[in-house]
């Protein structure tokens, strides 16, 4: 009897203790991100080992990742590239597919043509201006196979901006997609073919449809010897990718070989991409997202990359469904355009398990998942030239809207690699303590500019800058941040890190503005207004007004519900803004645009033109202006009379 009692006493605590211990471990894991940190640290260590081995073997060139799958008898017949049928395209084509072996053969033929006809040499930069089609990939990989470096030109650029990018690239050879041959009008061609101040002229060449393609494909393939690709280190330039040019002419960011391994190695493991996946992108290949984190991701597990000719909300989900895609890529406002587009029969007939990208607004996140029944979202934060990045893999809602998460262990071990510092909105520079002249770290949940740690003795190991623009590169480096001699990269992004280790994007430096003595986050205001069902999208910025300090908030909005501001929507938007935002952040003005808001090729809102126009009715042709006077129930029309009242100090704000 005593023994039985003893067994009872020992059994009861065990039956309670085991579930309690499990629950405690689960709580600690959720609170401190233990599993997340373990995975992150493993990825960092394995990435360092993998890239070091590639450099030691003299095989940092991305061509080898492609060649591996194309020459292995067990993988050569896998589908590498698919171009879908897009009925909305200007020149619709049937869906086409190429295996790794077929693509490898074609790349070799392009390499032979580039070498024999155009004399492309090892280390040479070749500018290429292509739309989203298979030719982009053939030329890109052919250049890599020869040891040359491609410069991806934004296919939307014309005249001055186009000539600027080609000149900055230092390329002597420019290859142009025949679908955009108009970029080489007579004036542009003459300007490019005229030697610049350094005696350099450009040999512009349009890939002329069937004739040239036939000559290329009828010839033999050529594989350059390994020595032509040899000698490069991880920090050496692999390609040039141009910035969006939202604040001026685009800059040529030098992308080093080490960064290409983020595509071929890190992100496929992070996303769990396998050989059976079919990765869909409609983003422009000239940008990092679709090239490094799209095409190169397929080379990690040897899966299929599906490249759509362009992004169109009308046909996007149809192409996703018809190509049997399992992973889709987004950037910028793409998901918002999909959410507000009319519903289609393709919305839930797809096989997508994951959406991956960057720039999804918090107010779009859940509506996007709900409408298209996509279980997981991986949001990525980073810039083409930046040495740091973050990501968050969201399934349950805890990370919804965040751009990254780091657990306690990673913050303790690597916290100095990515830090937030207080920002001075007067100078748009990190704030420095007047006593020490050093920056001050932001507290938890306090906004700050994100800085990435650099080795002051070897800046180029992580940040290689911009080709031909040393001043722009130097302006991104901040020194003596926390101690004399240290160095950090300025991201130009204001973020917030909460107590749970989640990173939240707030605004771009320069976009945040001061009004009524307070700092206004344009991203916060855009999110609030964008939550109204009749607002398709909102682009918020500050405008200068005569006789007023700071900038008044203005929201350029596109409407989708058919209800006008005069018909009650002005009151609804005012009520929404007052409910969701601090008083000083409620926009003073609305600019209702007649069409979609202007975006870059990577679907980021353009603000410069809107800011420059301000709210002078004479400069806002075709759009309607409204304002929220003190005491008004809602937004009312703002015309010449109201503008004159502002100029003459009669209007109160």
TrEMBL record:
Gene Ontology biological process terms, A to Z: long-chain fatty acid import into cell
Function description: Acyl-CoA synthetase required for both the import of long chain fatty acids (LCFAs) (C14-C18) and the activation very long chain fatty acids (VLCFAs) (C20-C26) by esterification of the fatty acids into metabolically active CoA-thioesters for subsequent degradation or incorporation into phospholipids. The transport and fatty acyl-CoA synthetase activities are genetically separable and are thus independent activities. Esterifies VLCFAs in the peroxisome matrix. The VLCFAs are actively transported into peroxisomes by a PXA1-PXA2 heterodimeric transporter in the peroxisomal membrane.
Cellular-component GO terms for this entry: cytoplasmic side of plasma membrane; lipid droplet; peroxisomal membrane
Localization (cell): Cell membrane; Lipid droplet; Peroxisome membrane
Organism (species): Friedmanniomyces endolithicus
Domain AMP-dependent synthetase/ligase: 83-407
Catalytic activity: a very long-chain fatty acid + ATP + CoA = a very long-chain fatty acyl-CoA + AMP + diphosphate
SUPFAM superfamilies reported in the protein's UniProt record: Acetyl-CoA synthetase-like
InterPro entries listed in its UniProt record: AMP-bd_C, AMP-bd_C_sf, AMP-binding_CS, AMP-dep_synth/lig_dom, ANL_N_sf
Keywords for the protein's UniProt record, in alphabetical order: ATP-binding, Cell membrane, Ligase, Lipid droplet, Lipid transport, Membrane, Nucleotide-binding, Peroxisome, Transmembrane, Transmembrane helix, Transport
AMP-binding enzyme C-terminal domain segment(s): 524-604
The organism's place on the tree of life at top rank: Eukaryota
Family, similarity comment: Belongs to the ATP-dependent AMP-binding enzyme family.
Cited PROSITE patterns: AMP_BINDING (PS00455)
A Pfam match: AMP-binding
Membrane topology designation: Multi-pass membrane protein
Protein's name according to its UniProt entry: Very long-chain fatty acid transport protein
Keyword rRNA-binding: no
GO molecular function, one term: ATP binding
Location, primary (coarse class): membrane
Gene3D superfamilies: 3.30.300.30, N-terminal domain of ligase-like (3.40.50.12780)
């Amino acid at each position: 009897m005593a023994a039985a009692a003893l067994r009872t006493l020992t059994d009861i605590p065990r039956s309670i203790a085991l579930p309690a211990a499990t629950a405690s471990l689960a709580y600690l894991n959720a609170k401190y991100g233990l599993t997340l940190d373990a995975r992150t640290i493993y990825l960092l260590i394995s990435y360092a080992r993998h890239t070091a081995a590639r450099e030691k073997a003299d095989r940092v060139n991305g061509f080898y990742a492609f060649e591996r799958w194309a020459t292995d008898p067990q993988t050569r017949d896998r589908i590498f590239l698919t171009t879908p049928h897009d009925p909305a395209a200007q020149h619709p084509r049937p869906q086409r597919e190429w295996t790794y072996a077929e693509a490898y053969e074609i790349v070799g033929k392009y390499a032979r043509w580039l070498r024999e006809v155009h004399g492309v040499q090892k280390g040479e930069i070749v500018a290429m201006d292509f739309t989203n089609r298979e030719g982009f990939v053939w030329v890109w990989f052919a250049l890599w196979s020869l040891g040359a470096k491609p410069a991806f030109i934004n296919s939307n650029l014309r005249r001055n901006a186009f000539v600027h990018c080609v000149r900055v690239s230092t390329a002597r050879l420019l290859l142009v997609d025949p679908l955009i041959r108009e970029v080489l009008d007579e004036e542009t061609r003459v300007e490019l073919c005229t030697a610049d101040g350094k005696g350099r002229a450009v040999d512009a060449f349009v890939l002329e449809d069937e004739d040239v393609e036939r000559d290329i494909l009828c010839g033999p393939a050529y594989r350059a010897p390994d020595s032509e690709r040899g000698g490069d280190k991880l920090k050496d330039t692999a390609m040039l990718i141009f910035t969006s040019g939202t604040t001026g002419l685009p800059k040529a960011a030098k992308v080093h070989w080490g960064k290409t391994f983020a595509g071929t190695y890190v992100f496929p493991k992070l996303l769990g991409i396998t050989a059976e996946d079919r990765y869909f992108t409609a983003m422009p290949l000239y940008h990092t997202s679709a090239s490094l984190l799209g095409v190169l991701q397929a080379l990690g597990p040897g899966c299929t990359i599906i490249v759509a000719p362009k992004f169109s909300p009308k046909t996007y989900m149809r192409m996703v469904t018809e190509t049997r895609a399992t992973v889709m890529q987004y950037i910028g406002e793409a998901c918002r355009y999909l959410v507000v587009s009319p519903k289609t029969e393709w919305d839930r007939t797809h096989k997508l398990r994951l959406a991956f990208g960057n720039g999804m607004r918090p107010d779009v996140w859940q509506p996007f998942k709900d409408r298209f029944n996509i279980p997981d979202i991986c949001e990525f934060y980073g810039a083409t030239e930046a040495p740091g990045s973050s990501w968050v893999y969201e399934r349950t809602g805890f990370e919804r809207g965040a751009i990254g998460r780091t657990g306690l262990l990673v913050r303790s071990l690597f916290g100095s690699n990515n830090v937030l510092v207080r920002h001075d909105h007067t100078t748009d520079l990190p704030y420095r303590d007047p006593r020490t002249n050093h920056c001050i770290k932001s507290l938890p949940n306090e906004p700050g500019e994100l800085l990435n740690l650099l080795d002051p003795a070897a800046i180029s190991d992580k940040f290689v800058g911009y080709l031909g623009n040393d001043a722009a590169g130097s302006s991104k480096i901040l020194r003596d941040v926390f101690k004399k001699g240290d160095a950090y990269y300025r991201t130009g992004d204001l973020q917030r890190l909460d107590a749970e280790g989640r990173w939240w994007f707030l605004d771009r430096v320069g976009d945040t503005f001061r009004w009524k003595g307070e700092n206004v986050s344009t991203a916060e205001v855009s999110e609030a207004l964008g939550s109204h069902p009749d607002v398709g999208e909102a682009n918020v910025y500050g405008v200068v007004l005569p006789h007023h300090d700071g900038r008044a908030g203005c929201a350029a909005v596109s409407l989708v519900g058919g209800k006008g501001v005069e018909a009650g929507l002005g009151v609804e938007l005012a009520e929404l803004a007052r409910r969701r935002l601090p008083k000083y952040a409620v926009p003073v003005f609305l600019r209702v645009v007649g069409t979609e808001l202007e975006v870059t090729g990577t679907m980021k809102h353009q603000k410069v033109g809107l800011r420059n126009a301000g709210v002078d009715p004479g400069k806002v042709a075709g759009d309607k202006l409204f304002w929220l006077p003190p005491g008004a129930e809602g937004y009312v029309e703002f015309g010449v009379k109201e503008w004159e009242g502002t100029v003459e100090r009669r209007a109160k704000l």
